[in-house]
Amino acid sequence: MRDSGISRSQRDNDVVLGDDWVAPDQNVTRELQDKRARRGVLSLRGSPLTRKIITLNLIALIILVSGILYLNSSRQSLVLQRAGALAAEAMLISDVFEAQLPEVGTVSLAVGDGIDPVTTLQNISLRAGAEVFVFDTAGTLIAQTKGVEQGGALDLLTDDNPSATLISDGLAALWSAAGGLLKSDTPEPAAQPLEDQLRGMVQQALAGGTEVKAVVDTSGGTVFSAATPILFQGQAIGVVTLASPTGEIDALVRGEQERVLQMFVVALVVSIGLSLVLASTIANPLADLAEAAELGRDGDSRKSKPGRIRIPDLSARPDEIGRLSRALRGMVKALYNRIDSNEQFAADVAHEIKNPLASLQSAVGTLRMIKREDQREKLLDVIEHDVRRLDRLVSDISNASRLDAELVKEDEESFDLLHMLGNLNQFLGEDARGKGIDYITDLPKTPITIQGLEARLAQVFVNLITNAISFCEDGDAIRVWARRRDNRVLVVVEDTGPGIPDQALSKVFKRFYSQRPVEHFGNNSGLGLAISKQIIEAHGGVIWAENIRPTEADITSEPLGARFVVGLPV
């Protein structure tokens, strides 16, 4: 694994190949380590994702090669080149005949008057496999010859030892076999002899000059032929036809196709290899992540000390799998944090409920033995107080347990924060003034609109203001003010009460924590500020508590009161 200290910008350019990026052994369970040790290249056969990657890569490669073979211009180019060369050779042979004709007199190819066609052909050097036919104007064959192996430069034009075309021959055999299964029983007409096919070009050459045509030899190979007239004093006295070696063009085309197919085979092997490497970098890490989750699920179903789910740490990968690993690990961590929080909450609830229950049990037990009426009344008051305390505690616990679900399910809306605070100040201010407490407000004139759950945020400010009222006495003051700062708004609730003990500043937002005078015992569950903090943080805000001191430089001075600050995004 790479060093986790590598910056994100450095990792973004990394290339991940093979199993270079897998979870280290210490981050996975023993069962997952055993599965990874048994993993090999052949194990990728069982991966649907691997099969899809290989299949898609091969389909693209096959389509590419098929297109190259189908649109290959090599055959057409070779045909044009050989046709031009063949026509030029035929015209040269015709020029040889014309050069030997007498300047005056009569010439007849049929009787050899003025020229000997046979001798003339024998004196012409032809490349191996090429055939020359000389016809008179009536289409009668006068002479013919065929090139043999001479070892000269002309034989270099003919490839007598073509390279093996195993792939092309194999595909041709398969195609022939498949065509034979679909072939009808009607026999195909046999090809005409080459001489007869060339004889059919005589009249065309006499009428239009040099002609080039593709014909089929009796052996089944393609032959290109050229026919050109022999002229004497401007009149045609015969025709020279030149036929290329049988299957020459076919062999050249097969050679070109064989080279394409050989490259296809090489590309096929490379594509499969790279696909397996690519699949291993995707399928194997995903399999590790899935198996880690499945091991945790199966362990839960077996109820056999499953332990915690340990997601492999692939966060160093600079790709989506790294993101997935980080997300899954974050989700699992949040899940276990929530489980731990719920367990702690359940333990705190049990502890808090035991106190009034113990008091109730003691009072009820004592009530059975008390005879005096005044003492019974005192015990009944204790029982009534504890029942109210339990009722308040259960209600607050119920609200706290439902809070997360309600914050997720309820839809946030835009509302005027100052309008809400104004309504609360009007209602709670009367309560404070009724107790002899000065209630001061300082809110901006311009509305401040925020996005959130108005009822839940109102619950926060009610908690803060009622807390301030409960700690203040006759002659104290409470001030509620708000200010907008760039992209946030601050709402502050201040009082001139006793302040908060320094050791309690970091604890006041914890569940069931309460720092109140003895006379207030049992009147609060200690969940109000914890719920307020949860609501504010769910809205993306912050809340904190501090003491108001005569000078900030002297932290040992006696506090002049307490201040609660709420910051919310605008």
How does this model look, in words?
The chain has 14 helices and 12 strands. The protein is 50% helix and 15% strand. The protein is rod-shaped and about 165 Å long. The chain has helices spanning 8-11, 30-37, 48-70, 74-100, 117-122, 166-182, 194-199, 202-208, 248-302, 320-367, 373-409, 417-434, 454-471, 528-538; strands spanning 131-136, 141-146, 211-216, 222-232, 235-243, 413-416, 438-442, 449-452, 477-485, 488-495, 542-548, 561-569. Helix 3 (48-70) packs antiparallel against helix 9.
Helix/strand layout:
Blueprint: H1 8-11, H2 30-37, H3 48-70, H4 74-100, H5 117-122, E1 131-136, E2 141-146, H6 166-182, H7 194-199, H8 202-208, E3 211-216, E4 222-232, E5 235-243, H9 248-302, H10 320-367, H11 373-409, E6 413-416, H12 417-434, E7 438-442, E8 449-452, H13 454-471, E9 477-485, E10 488-495, H14 528-538, E11 542-548, E12 561-569
Parallel strand pairs: 7-9
Antiparallel strand pairs: 1-2, 1-5, 3-4, 4-5, 6-8, 9-10, 10-12, 11-12
Helix pairs in contact: 3-9, 4-9, 10-11, 11-14, 12-13, 13-14
